[in-house]
Amino acid sequence: MPDGLVFSASFAIDGPVILVHGGAWDIPDGAVEDHRDGLKTALAAGRRSLASGHSAVDVAADVVASMESHGAFDAGRGAMLNQDGRAQLDAGIMDGSCLDYGAVIAVERLKNPIRVARRLMDAGNGQVRILAGEGAERFAVAEAFTLIDNVDLISERERDRFEALRDRIGDVHTSQSFLPGVADRRSGGGHDTVGCVVRDARGHVAAATSTGGTPFKPPGRVGDSPLPGSGFYADGEAAVSCTGWGEAIAAVVLAHDVVRRILDDEDLELAMTSRLQAMHDRIRNPDGDGARGGLIALSGSAVAWAYSTPRMARAIWAPGLGTVHLEL
Ligand code: ASP
User: Fold this and answer.
1) Which of 3, 10, 37, 56 has the fewest CB within 10 Å, making it most exposed?
2) Ligand 1 atom closest to Cα of 192?
3) Distance from the CA of 113 to the center of ligand 1, in angstroms?
4) What is the CATH T-level fold of the domain 7-101+154-325, as seen in this structure?
């Protein structure tokens, strides 16, 4: 792929719609079927949720919880492990109709972090929107969520990846050299953050994102995913969920930048591709490679995806359109 090239497409859809992603990177051929299954299962959960009359934000939580539980992705069960060999998870969600949001950061004992982030929107009473680590887990217990053991989040695939990385690179801080999609020199690859954007029958929109972060990250490292404006954002008719190099996405506040441009009537697809291109041009890793990533977005009348990595896992459902699994 030529340096910096962005792939994108948009669909004119003005009714209810669910658009999901399962990460943007060089997804190996052998992992494609599992990703497709995860996207399909998540869309089915979202359709059921929409059909029972849930609002966009509740549908978004159901969709992302499904992907957290699936195992194919770097979120929930199957998340990448940090340098301590533990899954440490981040998730955030936002309701475009009122700008309410909730996020949890660096949690280690929640099966579905997105559900706790969603609960924070209600139970936090607007006073508390983001909780990290043990504080988030204590809140979850107070809200009747069950804590699980960290090993229950760890898959064999990720245990093997962790052991290979530990043997190969010791305690190098890989987040600094991490670039989704380009030759992943030291980290060994794999960036399957999940997210969705939803428009419900009333025209309300929501965005949600959940991740285990980067491979072999130092404990406590936080990327873009749980930060409103960076990894997710929703306002009025516009919603965005991002994936990719978290430090770069946070630096350009990608989700908010794209939402603002949509609300300013910029073309949806152009807003997305130009921002990915700008991030790539502006932010480089120590080897001089431009930052890459992907995002999904919706405006009042369309949905779109764009990515600057070799592949992005993504799928759409809308009544009439049916389920569309895009080529991975
Ligand atoms: N953005 C995520 C992070 O930096 C990684 C990803 O999207 O795969 O934590």
Assistant:
1) 3
2) 8
3) 15
4) Glutamine Phosphoribosylpyrophosphate, subunit 1, domain 1 (3.60.20)
